[in-house]
């Protein structure tokens, strides 16, 4: 019951890759081809299509991220403020209790 069940090993047999030599490229004696100009210096330029919709989506996403971070920061500050108020109230209560016990022991 408590004995682990391991999956069966794969039946795939790995065969080593063979490397075949290729012939050297033939050089042409004509003029060199013109270099192709790069469209954009960014490597990720082809991944995103630039349109007003994507700009709007990025703006909305940025605003949502800022609002999320702001709400987390405000909740953390609120938690610190509530803890400080609770500690100050408990300190005042403990101070009154200590003063009352001192006065009671001074009378005896």
Walk me through the structure.
The protein has 108 residues and is mostly helical. Helices cover 52% and strands 0% of the residues. It has one helix and no strands. The model has no long low-confidence stretch (mean pLDDT 81).
Secondary structure tally, helices: 1
Radius of gyration: 37 Å
Major sheet: none
Proportion of beta-strand residues: under 5%
Number of strand segments: 0
Shape: elongated
H and E string? H
* Class computed from helices, strands and strand pairing: mainly alpha
Query: Which regions have little confidence, pLDDT < 50, spanning 5+ residues?
Result: none
Task: Bin the helical content.
Answer: 40-55%
Oligomer kind = single chain
Q: What does the average pLDDT come to?
A: 81
Termini Cα gap:
73 Å
Question: How does the SSE layout of this entry go?
Answer:
Blueprint: H1 52-107
Brief rundown of the structure:
52% of the residues lie in helices and 0% in strands.
Features:
0% strand; elongated; mainly alpha; 108 residues
